[in-house]
Amino acid sequence: MGNGVCSRRQRRIFQCLLLVTVVCGMMYGGMVSYEMHKQLKRTEVMALKYQQHQESLSAQLQVYEHRSRLEKSLQKERLEHKKAKEYLVYKLEAQQSLNKEKNQHEDLKKQYYELQEQHQVQGEDHSRLVDEHKERYDKLQKAKELEISQL
Fold first, then answer.
1. pLDDT of 16-50, one tens digit each?
2. How far apart are CA 62 and CA 56, in angstroms?
3. Rg (CA), the chain
4. What gap in Å lies between CA 124 and CA 42, rounded to an integer?
5. CA atoms within 13 A on the CB side of 4
6. How many CA atoms within 13 Å lie on the side-chain side of 106?
7. Cα–Cα distance, 133 to 136 (Å, whole number)
8. Which of 5, 35, 66, 150 has minimal Cβ neighbours within 10 Å of its Cβ?
9. How many angstroms separate the CA atoms of 77 and 68, rounded?
10. What is the DSSP string of 38-95?
């Protein structure tokens, strides 16, 4: 019987130890669960931070890409503007050159008509002088012939 009491006592100790072990295991499991929950929360916060950072970088990238497109467009516009300006300068110079040549042509034409008029006047003067000289010559010749015939 003493053996039976010891056995009961050992069983009781064993049950207490088992109970303490289960309670400690549950406490340990609760602490591990609590720590894992805290770690999960920290991970979620970090994931949210990284997601926000990624969204921020994505927005910055979109802004950069938009700015890059705008800069390319601006460069293209500047190049087109420069070409248009060069064309206008070329066109203006060509128009000025054409006007200058036209004015020179008009001046030459005016000079030509003036010279032609002078030529005509000089031709008429020449013809008149030739006629006058011919008349004088004829008069002189008649006078000489008359003198010769009188001699």
1. 999 999 999 999 999 999 999 999 999 999 999 99
2. 10
3. 63
4. 120
5. 1
6. 6
7. 5
8. 150
9. 14
10. HHHHHHHHHHHHHHHHHHHHHHHHHHHHHHHHHHHHHHHHHHHHHHHHHHHHHHHHHH
Helix (H, G, I), strand (E, B) or coil at 1: coil
pLDDT of the residue at 9: 80
pLDDT at 2 over 70: no
Match 């467009």 to its residue by tokens. Answer: 73
Q: How far is CA 30 from CA 17, 49, 63, in A?
A: 19, 28, 48
**Nearest CA to 107 among 118, 117, 115?**
115
pLDDT at 5: 57
For residue 149 the two structure tokens come to 């015939």
**Token reading at 110:** 């005016």
28 token code pair = 């340990």
- pTM, two decimals, is 0.46
- Token pair listed for 85: 């300006």
Lowest mean pLDDT among 3-7, 38-42, 132-136: 3-7
